[in-house]
């Protein structure tokens, strides 16, 4: 403590303090593993550092640690079961590898189904939050009570439940319930909420003096996000826009952060309901976060955003229609193994070769593809090569 008092810029002292707190004030019931009263006192300490030298990064970094979520708890996100293709899709909050100290026990009407083969969305056995099987054999014209349990190191971790009616071809269930707080922030006690609210007011006052300080502005964003991301949504987005102009070297970081917050707010608002259609056009998104929480979405509109990376879109296993017009996409990497995708709109992107589309060969139901206003459309030989690659797909090369 004396070293911090002597020099608030002592990175090592702040770091060792973060390591010692869980040892000196342990509390495994708290997200950070530190007794809440001791943790809250740290906010007062670090606030002194803010006002002493607002440009000192070490104080702000320690504050970020104080606001951390801690270790995420393993839970089941959702389950989708279909009689039509004998499939089950299960999504978890943390990565697992089935077969490597982990297994999924699948019960129908109290009887465990053996010999199920599970794979991830890439059709591989590697670590993933989503696992799929096509080996179900469900009784037809009969009600089914389904229980899927994650087993790790021979212990039950979490379970998902689903009731399939006798006339249901498919059914889904989600554990994402509305709790009044964000699932993407740690749950706040009344005491911590009051402390963070006071912290926010203090730093807003500091902002009146340090109008161009990026650390002050970013911390305000993170405090608002922790307290109530829906209530402060407009203020958060305005502050992130200002940060893009203020700290141009990190503009992509702020754009990605904004994209992440937009998706999280949509998921928080929709918690407790099954969402099949999502409209995200013209949101300025640079990346689609949390696709592992969207396996029930059937129609997704991402028109006129700033997407370059569409990795992990193959988590969208229920998707039938995807609109990606007006982005910066150069490859279909990430769209492979979408079993229900029928229509794909890629107008006005940066696709220049048939090689950019080979992932779509693994989408068995794809019927329509729009790639007008892409560089590939300027070369007849490339167009012919794409027709040969996707010979069962209707392809539009010119704007309608």
UniProtKB/TrEMBL annotation:
Catalytic activity entry: geranylgeranyl diphosphate + L-cysteinyl-[protein] = S-geranylgeranyl-L-cysteinyl-[protein] + diphosphate
One GO term (biological process): prenylation
Pfam family, one: LRR_8
GO cellular component: Rab-protein geranylgeranyltransferase complex
Gene3D superfamilies, sorted: Protein prenylyltransferase, Ribonuclease Inhibitor
Keyword list, A-Z: Prenyltransferase, Repeat, Transferase
Domain of life: Eukaryota
Known EC number: 2.5.1.60
Single GO molecular function: Rab geranylgeranyltransferase activity
Top-tier EC class: transferase
Biological role stated in the UniProt entry: Catalyzes the transfer of a geranyl-geranyl moiety from geranyl-geranyl pyrophosphate to cysteines occuring in specific C-terminal amino acid sequences.
Family: Belongs to the protein prenyltransferase subunit alpha family.
Name of the molecule in the record: Geranylgeranyl transferase type-2 subunit alpha
Organism (species): Arion vulgaris
């Amino acid at each position: 403590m004396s070293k911090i008092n002597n020099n608030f810029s002592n990175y090592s002292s702040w770091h060792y303090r973060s390591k010692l707190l869980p040892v000196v004030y342990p509390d495994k019931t708290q997200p950070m593993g530190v007794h809440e009263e001791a943790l809250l006192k740290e906010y007062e300490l670090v606030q002194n550092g803010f006002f002493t030298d607002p440009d000192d990064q070490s104080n702000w970094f320690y504050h970020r640690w104080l606001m951390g979520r801690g270790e995420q708890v393993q839970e089941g996100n959702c389950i989708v079961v279909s009689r039509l293709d004998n499939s089950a899709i299960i999504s978890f909050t943390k990565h697992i590898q089935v077969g490597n100290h982990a297994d999924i026990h699948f019960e129908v009407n109290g009887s465990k189904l053996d010999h199920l083969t599970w794979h991830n969305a890439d059709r591989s056995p590697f670590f993933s939050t989503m696992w799929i099987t096509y080996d179900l054999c469900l009784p037809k014209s009969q009600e089914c009570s389904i229980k899927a349990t994650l087993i790790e190191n021979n212990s039950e971790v979490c379970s998902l439940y689903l009731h399939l009616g006798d006339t249901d071809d498919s059914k889904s269930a989600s554990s994402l319930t509305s709790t009044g707080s964000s699932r993407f922030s740690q749950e706040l006690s009344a005491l911590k909420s009051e402390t963070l609210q006071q912290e926010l007011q203090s730093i807003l006052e500091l902002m009146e003096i340090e109008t161009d300080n990026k650390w002050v502005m970013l911390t305000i964003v993170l405090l608002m996000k922790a307290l109530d991301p829906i209530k402060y949504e407009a203020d958060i987005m305005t502050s992130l826009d200002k940060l893009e102009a203020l700290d141009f070297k990190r503009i992509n970081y702020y754009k990605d952060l904004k994209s992440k917050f937009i998706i999280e707010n949509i998921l928080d608002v929709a918690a407790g309901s099954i969402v099949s259609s999502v409209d995200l056009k013209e949101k300025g998104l640079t990346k689609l976060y949390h696709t592992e929480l969207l396996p029930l979405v059937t129609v997704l509109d991402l028109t006129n955003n700033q997407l370059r990376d569409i990795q992990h879109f193959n988590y969208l296993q229920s998707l039938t229609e995807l609109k990606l017009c007006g982005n910066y996409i150069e490859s279909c990497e990430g769209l492979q193994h979408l079993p229900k995708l029928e229509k794909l709109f890629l107008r006005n992107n940066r696709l220049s070769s048939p090689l950019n589309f080979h992932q779509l060969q693994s989408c068995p139901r794809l019927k329509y593809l729009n790639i007008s206003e892409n560089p590939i459309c300027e070369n007849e030989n490339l167009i012919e090569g794409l027709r040969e690659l996707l010979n069962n797909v209707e392809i539009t090369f010119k704007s309608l």
